[in-house]
Design goal:
Belongs to the THOC3 family. By secondary structure, this protein is mainly beta. It is 6% helix and 52% strand.
Length: 327
């Protein structure tokens, strides 16, 4: 069968699956809004970072998230976090307090605090696990040795740096910027390789698919673009959102792409065709989405539902979509 038929078979199977597993459930996580959610590489744990200056970690038990711990130490908002690519016990948080912190879920302790030059807003861990890159509000990206916790390199950019990421092969470093460009540097040399005019407006987020075939970018013009990693050309665009695309995530098989914004739904597209596979209804803008590394479960977090509840009791929840309707 050709690709189109294969895709449509997958499409039908996933739609059928979501028809029976379209339930979302929310889990109390924080006392203020959640900026970032991420799964450990083995899919056993979900971490969340919040405006309340803490990170929370949950254990996934069949169809629910059970809160394991709350991680305190930062003195300002935790804007982004990510896990070690192959060690399911380590995660790192980036904060406005000018530090990053590495945490170990086995001891529930902070194993390192690294001082940085500015208020940190984005962070990623290299695929080989050796380096952590952190970007701050002054458009400086610092490369930190994950073992010695010392800075290896620092780059000041002349443009607004949004999200940062290595490619899966670890030999290129990507930045999305405020002019709508994707800047690509060689790694570890950090020499400019290419700058792609990806969008007519601010390019906000970037994600690589697990198979290494594509990466996706989201922008302020509400478009999601899918790129071929080898050719660095745009393969297709997804245009169902109306608001700036804040967050993206590929499913574990690389076949679905979730994207979200201030629209009150999360779009789930089939990567190969761009067609809408499903949408997850939300009551408010979505800050962050993350597919589970093994199952069709999507973790996400939305903005506070202002004024809808007393003292924003629901402000700091983490949500999970893809649960059985009868659960």
């Amino acid at each position: 069968p050709d690709g189109a038929q294969m895709a449509s078979q997958y499409f039908q199977e996933m739609q059928e699956s979501f028809k029976n597993n379209s339930k979302s459930r929310e889990f109390p996580a924080h006392t203020a809004k959640v900026h970032s959610v991420a799964w450990s590489c083995d899919g056993r744990r979900l971490a969340s970072g919040s405006f309340d200056k803490t990170a929370s970690v949950f254990v996934l038990e069949k169809d629910r998230l059970v809160k394991e711990n709350n991680y305190r130490g930062h003195s300002d908002s935790v804007d982004q976090l990510c896990w070690h690519p192959t060690n399911p016990d380590l995660f790192v948080t980036a904060s406005g307090d000018k530090t990053i912190r590495i945490w170990d879920v086995r001891t529930t302790k902070c194993i390192a605090t690294v001082n940085t030059k500015g208020e940190n807003i984005n962070i990623c861990w290299s695929p080989d696990g050796q380096t952590i890159a952190v970007g701050n509000k002054d458009d400086v990206v610092t490369f930190i040795d994950a073992k010695t916790h010392r800075s290896k390199a620092e780059e000041q950019f002349k443009f607004e740096v949004n999200e940062i990421s290595w490619n899966n092969d670890n030999d290129m470093f990507f930045l999305t910027n405020g002019n709508g460009c994707i800047n690509i540097l060689s790694y570890p040399e950090l020499k400019p390789i290419q700058s792609i005019n990806a969008h007519p407006s601010n390019c906000i987020c970037i994600k690589f698919d697990p198979t290494g075939k594509y990466f996706a970018t989201g922008s302020a013009d509400a478009l999601v673009s899918l790129w071929d990693v080898e050719e660095l050309v745009c393969v297709r665009c997804f245009s169902r959102l109306d608001w700036p695309v804040r967050t993206l995530s590929f499913s574990h098989d690389g076949k679905m792409l979730a994207s979200a914004s201030e629209d009150h739904f999360i779009d789930i597209a089939e990567v190969e065709t761009g067609e809408k596979l499903w949408e997850v209804q939300c009551d408010s803008p979505t800050f962050t989405v993350a597919w589970h590394p093994k199952r069709p479960l999507l973790a996400y977090a939305c903005d506070d539902k202002e004024g809808k509840y007393d003292n924003n009791r629901e402000a700091g929840t983490v949500k999970l979509f893809g649960l059985p309707n009868d659960s």
